[in-house]
Task: inverse folding
């Protein structure tokens, strides 16, 4: 098994680790689940950073991740006054679609970390890093397989990504602050946040409608011109995720 195959295997395992852990914590009612969940999610982030490092990225490969992370972070801070109205999810999706799953994951994770420098770090930060990273990773896979050629599919995926991001963050609240976790607490938590979840999903669709086409064309042109990240895959050359 080569380095590339090993990296992909580790990344898939990392994606599965937090959901499995959460299921075990829910069944066993582990008393230190809040602290343990942060440790597990931080461990789940490592294979993606290690996998990117194993690709031996050039400075030009780092630029789009850094730039898109900064834009996503500033966009989140700019709209912070409007609850859950943010362009971050859309920008992370666009990055993954254009530069591949690994770049999408790193952009999502770094966007959460950087934007919380303005909005406040806390135990929710690793959860946000994982959730936005996962959105970028899956968007990269969808982009490689041309699943988003139809705008309706892209917008539906964007809406779903925004809603599921918030649903995943609700788990951090339940595990960290509710004892014991009951079905009543779960229903109340998700019902109370439903309006905010719909705003996030709708704003993601709005920003995808505004940004994906013009940004996508420019990013694709730059990627192919300078051979950035997933450009090798589109030219038929062997490349890892």
Result:
């Amino acid at each position: 098994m080569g380095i590339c195959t090993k990296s992909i295997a580790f990344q898939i395992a990392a994606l599965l680790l937090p959901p499995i852990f959460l299921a075990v914590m829910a069944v066993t009612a582990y008393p230190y689940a809040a602290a343990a969940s942060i440790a597990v999610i931080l461990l789940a982030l490592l294979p993606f950073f290690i996998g990117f490092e194993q690709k031996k990225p050039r400075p030009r490969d780092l630029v789009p991740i850094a730039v898109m992370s900064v834009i996503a972070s500033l966009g989140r801070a700019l709209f912070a006054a409007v609850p859950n109205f943010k362009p971050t999810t859309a920008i992370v999706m666009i990055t993954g679609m254009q530069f591949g799953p690994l770049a999408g994951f790193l952009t999502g994770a770094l966007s959460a970390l950087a934007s919380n420098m303005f909005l406040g770090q806390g135990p929710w930060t690793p959860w946000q890093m994982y959730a936005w990273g996962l959105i970028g990773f899956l968007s990269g896979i969808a982009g490689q397989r041309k699943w988003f050629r139809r705008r309706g599919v892209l917008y539906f995926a964007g809406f779903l990504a925004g809603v599921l991001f918030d649903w995943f963050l609700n788990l951090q609240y339940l595990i960290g602050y509710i004892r014991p976790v009951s079905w009543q607490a779960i229903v109340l938590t998700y019902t109370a946040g439903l309006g905010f979840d719909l705003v996030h999903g709708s704003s993601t669709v709005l920003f995808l409608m505004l940004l994906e086409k013009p940004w996508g064309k420019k990013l694709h042109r730059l990627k192919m011109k300078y051979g950035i990240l997933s450009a090798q895959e589109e030219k038929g050359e062997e490349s890892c995720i």
Notes: The mean pLDDT is 85. Residues 93 and 136 are 5 Å apart (CA to CA).
